[in-house]
Amino acid sequence: MLNIVIFGPPGSGKGTQSENLIKTYQLEHVSTGDLLRHEISTNTQLGALAKKHMDKGELVPDEVIIGMIDSFLDKCSTTAKGVIFDGFPRTVAQAEALNDLLKTYNTEVAVTLNLEVPEDELITRLIERGKTSGRSDDNLDTIKSRLDVYNKQTKPVLDFYKKLGKVADIKGVGSIDAIFADIKQAVDSAK
Ligand code: ADP
After folding, report:
1. Could you report the per-residue pLDDT of 99-140, keeping only the tens digit for each?
2. Whose CA is closest to atom 9 on ligand 1?
3. CA 20 – CA 68 distance, rounded (Å)
4. What is the pLDDT of residues 148-188, one digit of tens each?
5. CB 145 within 8 A of CB 57
6. Is residue 74 scored above 90 in pLDDT?
7. Percent of the chain residues past pLDDT 70, beyond the cut
8. How far apart are CA 3 and CA 69, in angstroms?
9. Rounded to an integer, what distance in angstroms lies between the CA atom of residue 53 and that of residue 31?
10. What is the sign of the dihedral through the CA atoms of 52, 54, 55 and 58?
11. Coil, strand or helix at 106
């Protein structure tokens, strides 16, 4: 299996580039943010819990997220050529859990694509997105909390994968196509 983690701060283009990856490599895609927003829109108990955290820009508890990934893999693993993990793992505990889960399927993360975008550009993009996304977390206060959470809780995940030699740094500024060309090169050399 070709398993890819698409990594980067909020607004770095993970979702956009995931779409390119899906088209090019025919992989399954799991976005924990999308799964959580689906829970919220269908009014589940999990959705209600998630919303409390998401509206403050905080992370949803690890056990909730890991449970979602576990059931996703359970459903797709026999047929999938590989999986793109988008917005996950966001803590070192999640990264460790993903390693353990993938081991049970005799597979592992091939590469972590680290999208690098300066903070002022991220804020501009997220505010712009907020005008049309309808996402209650795309407002300046929540954006600032999300960036803070990213720096404190999520960035350490990079060191986790760096120790395993599995990080490709990608400059996340420029045209979507130019960024994807770099991504493709990184994925092809990790295959
Ligand atoms: P973005 O990358 O723009 O912040 P996401 O859709 O990935 O957008 O995430 C939105 C929110 O969902 C996060 O701020 C967080 O509250 C929650 N969330 C998503 N993925 C995770 C995760 N892996 N662990 C904890 N919380 C998560």
Report:
1. 999 999 999 999 999 999 999 999 999 999 999 999 999 999
2. 33
3. 24
4. 999 999 999 999 999 999 999 999 999 999 999 999 999 99
5. yes
6. yes
7. 99
8. 13
9. 17
10. positive
11. coil
The finding on whether 88 has its CB within 6 A of some atom of ligand 1 is yes
How far is residue 122's CA from residue 12's CA, in Å, rounded to a whole number? 7
CB 18 within 8 A of CB 86: yes
Pocket test for ligand 1, best of 59, 128, 133 (most atoms within 8 A of CB): 59
Pocket test for ligand 1, best of 35, 124, 137, 153 (most atoms within 8 A of CB): 137
Residue whose C-alpha is closest to residue 108's, from 117, 120, 95: 95
Q: Scanning the structure block, which residue is given the tokens 């712009």? A: 128
Tokens of 164: 């395993």
CA angle 152, 154, 160 (to 5 degrees): 115
Report the predicted TM-score, pTM, of the whole model to 2 decimal places.
Answer: 0.97
Burial class (CB in 10 A: 0-12, 13-18, 19+), 175: exposed
- Average pLDDT, integer, range 28-40: 97
> What distance in Å separates the CA atoms of residue 165 and residue 93, rounded to the nearest whole number?
18
- Residue 135 is among the residues annotated as catalytic for this protein: yes
CA of 53 to the centre of ligand 1 (A): 9
Tell me whether residue 14 is one of the annotated catalytic residues: yes
Mean pLDDT of the chain: 97
Evaluate if residue 73 carries a pLDDT over 80: yes
